[in-house]
Amino acid sequence: MMQLAVPEAPLLNVDNLVVEYGLGNKTVHAVSGVSLQVARGETLGLVGESGCGKSTLGRAVLQLRRAKSGRVLFDGEDLTAMEGEALRKMRRRVQLIFQDPIASLNPRRRIGDIVAEPLVIAGVKDVAERRRRVHEVLSAVGLDPDLVAGRLPHEFSGGQCQRICIARSLVLNPEFIVCDEPVSALDVSIRAQILNLLEEMKARFGLTLLFIAHDLAVVKAVSDRVAVMYLGRLCEVGPSEQLFASPAHPYTALLLQAIPVPDPDVRPAESVAGGEPPSPIAPPSGCRFRTRCPRADQRCSAEIPELREIAPGQFAACHHPLA
Amino acid sequence: MSGPLLTIEDVAVELPTPRGNLRAVDHVDLSLEAGRTLGIVGESGCGKTMLSRAVLQLLPKKAKLSGRVMFDGQDLARLDSERLRQLRGRDLAVVFQDPMTSLNPVLTIGTQLMETIQEHLELDASAARARSIELLAAVGIPAPEQRLAQYPHQCSGGMRQRIAIAIALSCEPKLLIADEPTTALDVTIQAQILDLLAREQRRRHMAMIIITHDLGVVAGRADEVAVMYAGRVVERAPTPALFKRMHMPYTEALLAAIPKLDAAPHTPLPAISGRPPDPTRPLRGCSFAPRCRYATGRCHEAKPALTGAERPDHLYACFHPIRMAEGVGA
Ligand SMILES: Nc1ncnc2c1ncn2[C@@H]1O[C@H](COP(=O)(O)OP(=O)(O)OP(=O)(O)O)[C@@H](O)[C@H]1O
Ligand SMILES: Nc1ncnc2c1ncn2[C@@H]1O[C@H](COP(=O)(O)OP(=O)(O)OP(=O)(O)O)[C@@H](O)[C@H]1O
Ligand code: SF4
Ligand code: SF4
Ligand SMILES: [Mg+2]
Ligand SMILES: [Mg+2]
Fold it and tell me: Do B266 and A157 touch (CB under 8 A)?
């Protein structure tokens, strides 16, 4: 069992979560026994390469995809056991922001209506109250409500659409937001604006965030702790600075080595571990990273490594962690 | 051979759109010597792809191209389409962001490779096959013989990009243009593909243009970098000088806006406010003026020309260039 790095009970506690997809007569092992905690007011970054199960995990936390087994405790209550009205009530407290801001806005609806939609769904009947909330969140994300509320999504750039999505996610005053690659589709100059905005909103509305991305530098910029995922499992989790300075898991080290650094004095590491991730339909036995790991031995194919504490607050699932 | 392999002289590309003429490339000059790598960096829509398509003479039909592209002593605009087609498969190769742009989904990988090789080199079927296997092995495809019989959809994205690179390299091109070759790939695969390109380039003494929006991709891999903004090259310098002693406020702002791995969490990023101008409504002055923290009245009135006031190899287009003391700090 993983120990909590924080004294207070976590706002989110994901316990041994398993999520699978059926694909013909095969099974995609998208999330295979992930446990993690997010403390109130904390940002937990979640990184890993395409297909490793980040979005699936995020969606399963919000119960947009039901888990096969495991539990998701939010503020002490088990979301996986909830249904109907209870779940709908709970959903007001948790929100999702997607990667593709333009595609996640209905092209035929006006911005004011798009942002008000969660209020309507939540049963807020008072039109004036809805308008007040919409104005408040649009201003908060740096848009002029009077100028934008009546317009359609296609009149906005990608960065502006992401601001609108953020406004929509804030309108119900949630406590927790899953940000699924919120800046991946944006240009560098716009990306910085949105990252700053998310940080501001977090402070202003007292949010707790699960921040998913594949860019480690982006994740580090906003996260208190970072969790690294590979092929459906957690490899490592720990305080951002510590994890980046001294990764314990060979996969974290590989990821860090592969990042192109905008500094001509940093020579790109020639031939980072070869190979590609195996299919989640038939993941390797034992440690799932073993087919690409330079330290792999027999034990790695026989025994699944459990997350264990390597340094204070830093946990890695590896039989032979880096010193 | 002396003199550059490629020179782009005063190239402009205009596209008619319902909103008016769109100047996608705005009078660009560049040159590249054999065996060298030029990085072209800029944000989405700044004209990187249109510029490379102008070089390849592969622009949309309605596009208006002006200026001159000289490749290996020939003016490309003057070549007939048959000669151009020959040149493109052979001396002038290209790799796109989406490998499926250059791969045919209904033909096996072997057929595609062998067709290209046989079309451009005088090799018989068995020699072409042998060469195909050799190439696939060179780009890091395991069990290359078996791959020949497979179709593109049976390969991962990274594999497909390797195959597209193998096809591009198959006729020993003199110049390879790679337009965001790794943008769609994961970091670990991206690093492998960039290593592959660098290795093959050295081995073949090939010239290469890497187009990307990621300054990190060119930092360690290009000899020279050209930064584009709103259709123009706004700064061009040897890579170390561009990163360490940039003169252009846009380059500085772009670099500052990138989250850094060595920065502490929750460090606010120096974001660039606003966004690039509408390319159908060109600005009278400097295109970066509305977002530039050094802008003065003059910047809104006139367009700064690309010049190299201090050093002929370091060009910038700015009235108020940043000047950093030589050799001080980094
Ligand atoms: N609806 C689905 N049906 C079948 N398989 C799916 C489905 N959705 C996702 N998968 C598979 O589950 C695995 C995890 O996918 P997921 O989208 O969670 O990954 P991710 O880490 O978010 O990737 P990305 O970085 O590309 O967004 C992948 O192998 C994916 O192909
Ligand atoms: N077929 C087309 N017709 C009209 N305009 C186009 C066409 N293709 C591109 N454009 C416009 O030309 C300009 C330059 O586009 P280009 O594709 O060269 O940009 P880019 O720098 O390659 O961007 P990205 O990083 O998104 O690939 C943009 O404003 C774009 O909207
Ligand atoms: S458990 Fe073995 S294979 Fe897995 S990361 Fe550690 S050393 Fe590598
Ligand atoms: S010319 Fe003026 S506006 Fe343009 S980059 Fe230089 S200082 Fe900024
Ligand atoms: Mg995803
Ligand atoms: Mg492009």
Answer: no
Residues sharing a CB contact under 8 Å with residue A224, sequence separation 6 or more, in sequence order: A42, A43, A44, A239, A240, B265, B266
User: What residue has token string 């622009």?
Assistant: B59
C-alpha closest to that of B117 among B169, B175, B152: B169
CATH code, domain carrying A74: 3.40.50.300
Name the nearest CA neighbour of B153 among B190, B108, B187.
Answer: B108
Confidence of residue B327 (pLDDT cuts 50, 70, 90): very low
The tokens for B239 are 């890579």
Q: What per-residue confidence (pLDDT) applies to A46?
A: 98
Percent helix, percent strand, percent coil in chain A, to nearest 5: 35, 20, 45
Residue B279 counted as domain residue:
yes
Measured between beta carbons, the chain A residues lying within 8 angstroms of B156 are 276
In a domain, A1, yes or no: no
Is residue B325 a part of any domain in this protein? Answer: yes
Predicted TM-score (pTM) of this structure? 0.91
Q: pLDDT at residue B328 above 80?
A: no
Q: How many domains does the structure of chain B reveal?
A: 1
**How far apart are the CA of B63 and the centre of ligand 4, in A?**
29
- Position B330 scores a pLDDT of 35
- Domain assignment of residue A49, given as a range: 9-93+204-259+274-323
Domain residues for the domain of B269 are: 233-330
Residue B82 lies in a domain: no
Residue B188 dihedral angles phi and psi, to the nearest 5°: -70, -35
For chain A, the domain total comes to: 1
Q: What is the pLDDT of residue A271?
A: 58
Give the three-class secondary structure for A16.
Answer: strand
- The residue whose CB lies within 8 Å of the most ligand 4 atoms, and thus the one to mutate among B232, B272, B294, is B294
Q: Is B34 part of a structural domain of the chain?
A: no
CB pairs under 8 A between A and B: 139
pLDDT (0 to 100) of residue A268: 73
Kindly report, residue by residue over A140-158, the tens digit of the pLDDT.
Answer: 998 999 999 999 999 888 8
HSE toward the beta carbon, residue A89, CA cutoff 13 A: 6
Which pair of tokens denotes residue B286?
Answer: 């400097």
Distance (Å, rounded) from C-alpha A133 to C-alpha A116?
8
DSSP A82-133: --HHHHHHHHTTEEEE-S-TTTTS-TTS-HHHHHHHHHHHTT---HHHHHHH
Residues 220-249 of A with CB under 8 A from B: 220-224, 240-241, 244
Give the pLDDT band (50/70/90) at residue A273. Answer: low
Compute the Cα dihedral for B282, B286, B287, B293 and give only its sign.
Answer: negative
Contact call for A264 and B159, based on CB within 8 A: no
Give B21's contacts (C-beta < 8 A, 6+ positions apart). B14, B15, B280
Is A139 a member of any domain? Answer: no
